[in-house]
Amino acid sequence: MVKFEFRVPARSGDQVAVIENLHKSYGPRVIYQGFNLTVRRGERWAVMGRNGAGKTTLLKMIAGALTPDAGSIQLGASLNMGYFAQQSLDVLDPELTVIEQLQNDFPQDGLGSLRSLAGAFQFSGDDIDKRIRSLSGGEKSRLAMARMLYNPPNFLVLDEPTNHLDLATKEMLVDALKQFEGTMIFVSHDRMFLRGLGSRVLELGGETGKDRNPLAYPGTYVEYVQKTGHEAPGTHS
Predict the structure, then answer these.
(1) Are 83 and 157 in contact, with CB atoms under 8 Å apart?
(2) Does an H or E element contain 18, and which?
(3) N or C, which terminus of the chain has less Cβ within 10 Å?
(4) CA 75 from centroid of its chain's CA atoms
(5) SS3 for 169?
(6) 200-205 and 211-217 as β-strands: parallel, antiparallel, unpaired?
(7) C-alpha torsion 152→90→113→194, nearest 10
């Protein structure tokens, strides 16, 4: 398996995202009510909770894809964000091949390094000449991830990044992200991803999924599981 080595992203300020008095509702359904959180440089926040607890909503608001009803999200100095969600796949050009898309994205880079990038994300041999419209969901996810991580941002906002990924790609991604020197906040139901990467835990909705007060746990996901005696809701291996 090809190993992926990150280029070192530029260093961000110490405070990466400061969320103050955040409110968000959908009609009568209140998702956030006066929520506060500070994400600091180098932290890797695992956001967990039952369906409907507001995980994707939070990531969208941090990424600027959704506006809070009230309150603020201040992003820190020298920040370059990479946002991955299933919608990220829509920005790929269906008519291009895998290698053409990468050449479009990184015109200054030689074919050799782009082939290595494609190889690290499991596009080997003739795979790089496949048209994007004929790729499976998993292949599109791998390509979107490869594009985002080639010149890595220093703040990664990842919503279910391992959906559709096979075990080999998932292992490669977790290993690569362990070496990543930036900051992350992510939603995942994947045990390997949570255990491998979560250095902080944000639990939304509590056990019932209806608890209004999010819990920010200052330890790793593994410590969180030991302390509470349960994995994140909906976790799978």
Answers:
(1) yes
(2) strand 15-26
(3) C
(4) 16
(5) helix
(6) antiparallel
(7) 50
Q: What is the 3-state secondary structure (H, E, C) of 22-79?
A: EEEEECCEEEEEEEEEEEECCCEEEEEECCCCCHHHHHHHHHCCCCCCEEEEEECCCC
Whole-angstrom Cα Rg for the chain: 18
Under 8 Å between Cβ of 198 and 216? no
Q: Work out the number of other CB atoms within 10 angstroms of the CB of residue 56.
A: 18
CA distances from 111 to 1, 103, 104, 230 (A): 20, 8, 11, 47
- Asked if 6 and 122 count as a contact pair (C-beta separation under 8 A), the reply is no
Q: How many helices (H) and strands (E) does the chain have?
A: 7, 9
Q: Is 12 left (phi over 0), alpha (psi -120 to 50) or beta?
A: beta
User: Cα(115)–Cα(121) distance, rounded to whole angstroms?
Assistant: 10
Q: Per residue of the chain (237 residues), what is the pLDDT tens digit?
A: 566 777 889 999 999 999 999 999 999 999 999 999 999 999 999 999 998 899 999 999 999 999 999 999 999 999 999 999 977 777 899 999 999 999 999 999 999 999 999 998 989 889 999 999 999 988 999 999 999 999 899 999 999 998 888 888 899 889 889 988 899 999 999 999 999 999 999 999 877 767 778 999 999 999 999 999 989 888 887
pTM exceeds cut of 0.85: yes
Q: Are the C-beta atoms of residues 68 and 210 closer than 8 Å to each other? A: no
